[in-house]
Specification:
126 residues, mainly beta, Barwin-like endoglucanases, 6 strands, 8% helix, 28% strand, signal, RlpA-like_sf, Barwin domain-containing protein, Expansin_CellWall
């Protein structure tokens, strides 16, 4: 099995892999986009290849846990330093977003599906 891929019986048949979520300590330091976020925010770091020139900064992403179908929205606020340059299968999530998808931090990684929302769109949080 190639590193970076999480096999799952919940993947659609036409996909041989699922995308994966990991988490990182946001810690209040400025991310690649220059914002200071916290571990409790719904923060997402994307790979270098998706980051590009930063055109996805502050764009919301819909993320769904393939195992339990829990879904959350996360805001693109950083570049994933642990992702390979062309790693398009992984999102690095803040701890609260990772746990909000129904997984304990000790799990470390799980299968997801995700997509960017339209630029300018924002979820309505209670």
């Amino acid at each position: 099995m190639r590193a970076g891929y999480v096999p799952s019986s919940r993947c659609p048949v036409f996909l041989l892999i699922c995308l994966q979520a990991t988490y990182y300590e946001v810690g209040g330091a400025a991310g690649a986009f220059g914002y200071h976020d916290s571990d409790s925010g719904h923060v997402v770091a994307i790979s270098h290849s998706i980051y590009g020139s930063g055109s996805n900064c502050n764009q919301w992403i819909h993320i769904k846990n393939m195992k339990n179908d829990k879904a959350q929205y996360g805001k693109t606020r950083d570049r994933c330093s642990g992702c390979g340059q062309y790693d398009i299968v992984r999102l690095d999530l803040s701890p609260s977003l990772f746990q909000g998808l129904g997984e304990p931090l000790g799990k470390g990684v799980f299968g997801i599906e995700w997509h960017f929302m339209a630029k300018g769109w924002s979820p309505e949080f209670p």
